[in-house]
Amino acid sequence: MFRRRALRVPARRVNPGAYSFVWMDERAQDNRQRDVQPSPSPNALVAAHSGRLRRLCRLLLGDAQEAEDVVQEVFLKAHETAWRGGDPVAWGAWLTRVAVNACRDRRRAGGWMRLRFRSSRLDDVTLAAQTPAPSDAAISEDTRRRIWAAFRELPRRQQEVFLLRYVEEQSTPDVAAALGLSPGSVKRHLYRAVRHLRRALGDAR
With the C-alpha atoms ordered 47, 51, 57, 62, is the resulting torsion angle positive or negative? Predict the structure, then answer.
């Protein structure tokens, strides 16, 4: 049984260790498996990256089934790319970039408002800790919902940067490469996202 943890919003300075998320069930194992050989088998790609991509897409879309559909599309594209051969691919960054772009396309589609309407029902699944850690026991359900609601209010780009930096624990250069941004732009988006979340919790320092 996986343990899911709640977000910690630091009072002032931002650092990667200051956050933990309710959605972090398989992250540590996923992070160790990200980089695989230049021409991996389809099964190797799925084994190494499916968990984190599914989690990332679920958070960006707010809908588990839509996230599953996106992940399937991403691995289909990966299979086609690997089959064509060519230059070696940094598969971890490549899969992240394709997944984020696919989520953007879904959000632009006509069904996105329907997903936003349904997102409140996803809260019950996403925010419910099956076996909360002792440090998370004092976090009320109301606080968890406020965090989730504040996250959903962030602009698309800030959501992407925040998730990759703190949920996926990617470095600033890796986030920049995955999203096609400069490191400075990543830092600006991250600062604004953290500020918004802090204010949502009543910490406007």
Answer: positive
Residue 133, pLDDT score: 52
Exposed e or buried b for every residue in 54-67, given b needs 16+ CB within 10 A? bbbbbbbbbbeebb
Q: How many CB atoms lie within 10 A of CB 133?
A: 13
Residue 188: what pLDDT?
Answer: 97
Residue 155 pLDDT greater than 80, yes or no = yes
Of residues 167 and 4, the one with the higher pLDDT is: 167
For residue 66, give the nearest of 12, 108, 19, 97 by alpha carbon: 108
Interacting residues of 143 by C-beta distance below 8 A, sequence separation 6+: 6, 201
Question: How many CB atoms within 10 Å of residue 132?
Answer: 16
User: Can you state the percent helix, strand and coil of the chain, rounding each to 5?
Assistant: 65, 0, 35
